[in-house]
Amino acid sequence: MPTNIQEKSIIVTGAGRGIGAEIARGLAADGARVTIADLSGDNAGAVAASIRDGGGKAIAVAVDVRDRASVRAMIEETVRAHGRLDVIFNNAGVAQTKPFLEITEEDWRFVTDVNALGVLIGMQESIRQMLSQGGGGKIVNTASIAGKQGYEPLAHYSASKFAVVALTQAAARAFGKERITANAICPGVVATDMWKVIDGGFKEHGLTSRDNEAFDNFAGIAVLGRASAPADLVGVARFLASSDSDFMTGQSLMVDGGMVFV
Ligand SMILES: NC(=O)c1ccc[n+]([C@@H]2O[C@H](COP(=O)([O-])OP(=O)(O)OC[C@H]3O[C@@H](n4cnc5c(N)ncnc54)[C@H](O)[C@@H]3O)[C@@H](O)[C@H]2O)c1
To answer: Which atom of ligand 1 is nearest to the CA of 161?
Structure first.
């Protein structure tokens, strides 16, 4: 088990399902006190309840990461329940598949409001809390292989994930002296509900002809020979939440089975 996760107060946004839920379960299994935060309060509640049923420590909070007041309330509830905030995973995200020339201003705002603005707000408000309580802290953002490569029918999604990498680097430079680190995880093709949306978009726009074709094609690029499961992200998440990663900041770690080499 990585050192120093026990009793840490850790928020995971977008933890009502998918990658976030699995990361939160892994951290709770290591003894962290986790805040399961999601736009779906029902899903967040169900994940938190299942962690508590297994003997872990978890609270659920409904949050909209695009809304600063809602993010502040999430942090306040966490501090009320767990005394402080040590780590935040800004993981909530949305995806949309659209051919490049068909992306509208509305599409751009839909994707970037959650994936880029939501991460900026989550970082700002959690860093304010960490500065006021003292003792440093850790920011871990979920970027993507699409934060390192622009993918044509995911141009606005890719742009939003490049923004996550940039925000991670900028915050690392800004807050290193206060011992607040910022790093990102870049997943590849993970079998979650999000990929159902992406895959469906490929088919809807005539870019593929059968269900799961885009998923299979993308996953086929991974040199380790398979798509990811949410569990494949948990080891790196634990490392980034623990003191084992204390001397690392500004990095975006590819955890994609070998799809993009940077
Ligand atoms: N699935 C993949 O292949 C993949 C690959 C690379 C990166 N990612 C990134 O990983 C993260 C998690 O993705 P996932 O695959 O688990 O997706 P998912 O759709 O299964 O889960 C995303 C969660 O985010 C929540 N969410 C959406 N908008 C929100 C908002 N405004 N406020 C709060 N919560 C909100 C949703 O309710 C959902 O529970 C995302 O940032 C995604 O972009 C996923």
So the answer is: 43
Cβ of residue 112 lying under 6 Å from some atom of ligand 1: no
The structural domain count of the chain equals: 1
The answer to whether residues 18 and 228 touch, using CB atoms and an 8 Å cutoff, is no
195 part of a folded domain: no
Mean pLDDT of 3-10: 90
| 157 labelled catalytic | yes
pLDDT of residue 10: 98
Helix (H, G, I), strand (E, B) or coil at 120: helix
Specify if 85 maps to a domain.
yes
**Contact indicator for 66, 117 with CB cutoff of 8 Å:** yes
Q: Has residue 208 been placed in a domain?
A: no
Query: For residue 145, how far is its CA from the centre of ligand 1 (angstroms)?
Result: 14
The pLDDT of residue 2 is 53
Q: How far apart are CA 208 and CA 186, in angstroms?
A: 25
Q: Which atom of ligand 1 is nearest to the CA of 228?
A: 3
Q: What is the pLDDT of residues 111-134, one digit of tens each?
A: 999 999 999 999 999 999 999 999
Q: What is the pLDDT of residues 78-109, one digit of tens each?
A: 999 999 999 999 999 999 999 999 999 999 99
Is residue 70, in this structure, part of any structural domain at all? yes
Domain containing residue 167: 9-187+228-255
pLDDT digits (tens, 9 = 90+) for 29-43: 999 999 999 999 999
Among 27, 43, 157, 222, which one carries the catalytic annotation? Answer: 157
**Token pair listed for 26:** 């892994």
The domain that contains 79 carries what CATH number? 3.40.50.720
260 lines ligand 1 (CB under 6 A): no
Q: Is 149 in the pocket of ligand 1 (CB under 6 A)?
A: no
37 forms beta bridges with: 13, 61
Looking at the chain, the whole-number percentage of residues with pLDDT higher than 70 is 99
Ligand 1 nearest atom to the CA of residue 15, by list position: 39
In whole angstroms, what is the distance from residue 94 CA to residue 112 CA? 9
